[in-house]
């Protein structure tokens, strides 16, 4: 049997310069950003609508079933929502609409009328 040799590492400490104090840093927790106050003109900044909220507004206004591509075009025409540069915003909207219908059930803002078409759930 061979015996295993173990070695220990020697640690060296840096010598402090004469008269210099070691700088100690303590981690301070980051403060949460406070919401910005309204501008001095008294007008509150309007919050942007999400795609699904804009779709709910368009469907409530038109009162007819629409496909997701038609919804995207109508939201852009009414300047409620524009795509931030995605290639298939209608597919994203379709997924969001079906997800809301499946999770909320009868409490959903939308209903599926036929294949690919949604209407406001009145």
Main attributes of the structure:
single chain; 122 residues; alpha+beta; three-stranded antiparallel sheet; 3 helices; 3 strands; 9% strand; elongated
Strand-helix topology:
Blueprint: H1 51-62, E1 66-67, H2 68-77, H3 89-104, E2 110-114, E3 117-120
Antiparallel strand pairs: 1-3, 2-3
Helix pairs in contact: 1-2, 2-3
| Strand count | 3
Show unreliable segments: none
What's the SSE pattern? HEHHEE
Report how far the terminal alpha carbons are from each other: 84 Å
* Mean pLDDT across all amino acids: 82
**Gross geometry:** elongated
Number of helices: 3
Compact description:
The protein is an alpha+beta fold and 122 residues long.
Characterize the structure shown:
- The chain is an alpha+beta fold and 122 residues long.
- It has a domain at 51-120.
- It is 31% helix and 9% strand.
- It contains three helices and three strands.
- The chain has a three-stranded antiparallel sheet.
- Strand 2 (110-114) and strand 3 (117-120) form a beta hairpin.
- The longest helix is centred in the last third of the chain and has 16 residues, at 89-104.
- The model has no long low-confidence stretch (mean pLDDT 82).
